[in-house]
Design brief:
The chain is mostly helical. It has 18 helices and no strands. It is globular. The chain starts with a helix and ends with a helix.
Length: 402
């Protein structure tokens, strides 16, 4: 009976994460769809071919204006490189599209608070700057030239230039927004499902002692600066073991926060979404294993340094988060602003889906196929759906008995 109680509570907590963030996902992907549909990119890509501030800045802007899906970020970065963008610009795009997008920011604000949102924005820029410098200092020219040759005949072209004023006034423009919205959901829902489910079960089943031991929380005789370094270094490996993308790991970061993990560790965890094995494998398919592991190495070093810089900066400004929000409070079901926001955005999502159907009908096309985690991930998604359904049934059963 205790197992059924814990199982049901875990599934209920996972559903609570979905409930709390549902409206934020719709709003974030709606804004992302508008940016993708109405921000012309064609003329700007020609200015991204050098390893200078202009190229990196444009890549950062493109990344922030794109989808937060990790797999989409890798595919778009490959397309940029194919069109002549410098490799450093491509890496900057990857980081920006998984750390500076609006939907991720809204989710962090809801689950973790404004300090973490501020850290995500500032740290995202620091992360891009550090990775750019690292690549310049270690630039493996022959490897990257071979990687460019490999992608020149692969990948989709970026959309060419257009008159955004004309498009934003047209029905076709808003149908395109709906199409972008649905595509973003199609690419990200699996990571969100897996990530939120893992977070729900971890929050209930994994004892606090596990996290305090792993991240040296309250360790006696260990200097605080050494604990911060350990947290920043171990967080990317914890993130890699979750196999979760950028949007799916925020609830788990909330679990870490509620268990007292240091600020440096939580930020290191959030930034490490591009280091999960499926994404490293995708990069290997695009550029070869040497370059894929090189990218992962650059990311690891950049993430550790960024987490430590943020920890030091926020400590200096005395704004390091210390509230330790409890997961149970975040995932409650009640008639509050979340209820009304979800109600409103369900209608908005329905309208956007309808716009997508009109777009597909007019263009006689099917939904785009985005390269993802493959058969293993599809099996995992099916298993996680079954786990959630059975878990909610277990929760309903325990409620009937109580």
């Amino acid at each position: 009976m205790e197992f059924i109680n814990l199982y049901g509570e875990s599934a209920k907590t996972a559903l609570g994460f979905f409930w709390k963030s549902g409206w934020a996902f719709v709003l974030g992907y709606f804004v992302s769809g508008m940016i993708q549909a109405f921000v012309p990119k064609g003329k700007l890509t020609q200015h991204m071919g050098e390893a200078d501030i202009k190229s990196i800045s444009l890549s950062t802007f493109f990344g922030a204006a794109s989808s937060s899906c990790s797999f989409a970020a890798l595919a778009a970065a490959r397309a940029l490189i194919k069109k002549g963008a410098h490799f450093i610009a491509g890496v900057a795009f990857m980081f920006a599209s998984t750390n500076l997008v609006i939907e991720l920011g809204i989710l962090i604000l809801i689950f973790l608070g404004w300090q973490f949102l501020a850290a995500e924005i500032v740290g995202g820029l620091i992360l891009i700057a550090i990775s750019s410098v690292l690549i310049k200092l270690t630039y493996p020219k022959s490897w990257l030239e071979a990687a460019r040759d490999k992608v020149e005949s692969e990948g989709d072209d970026l959309e060419e230039d257009f008159d955004w004023k004309k498009r934003i006034k047209s029905k076709e423009g808003w149908r395109l927004v709906g199409h972008k919205f649905v595509n973003d959901w199609k690419m990200a829902w699996e990571d969100i499902l897996i990530g939120f489910t893992i977070a729900g079960f971890v929050a209930v089943l994994v004892p606090e002692s596990f996290w305090t031991t792993l991240f040296l929380v309250g360790a006696e005789g260990v200097p605080g600066w050494l604990v911060a370094i350990e947290n920043a270094m171990i967080a990317p490996f914890v993130a890699a073991l979750t196999f979760i993308g950028s949007m799916g790991n925020i609830p788990l970061a909330t679990v870490l926060n509620s268990n007292g993990v240091l600020f440096a560790g939580i930020m290191g965890f959030i930034y490490s979404d591009l280091m999960v094995p499926p994404l490293v494998h995708i990069n290997a398919k695009y550029y070869g294993w040497r370059v894929a592991l090189y990218i992962a190495g650059v990311m690891f070093v950049s993430i550790v340094f960024t987490a430590l810089i943020l920890n030091g900066l926020f400590t200096l400004l005395d704004i390091v988060p210390e509230s330790r929000r409890t997961v149970s409070n975040i995932t409650q079901f009640k008639i509050d602003y979340t209820f009304w926001m979800n109600l409103v955005f369900v209608w908005i999502a329905g309208w956007l889906i309808w716009q997508n159907k009109a777009y597909l009908k007019n263009h006689s096309m099917k939904m785009m196929e985005m390269e993802g985690g493959g058969k293993i991930k599809k099996v995992a998604v099916t298993i996680f759906i079954i786990i959630n359904v059975l878990g909610l049934a277990a929760f309903a059963y325990t409620q009937l008995l109580s």
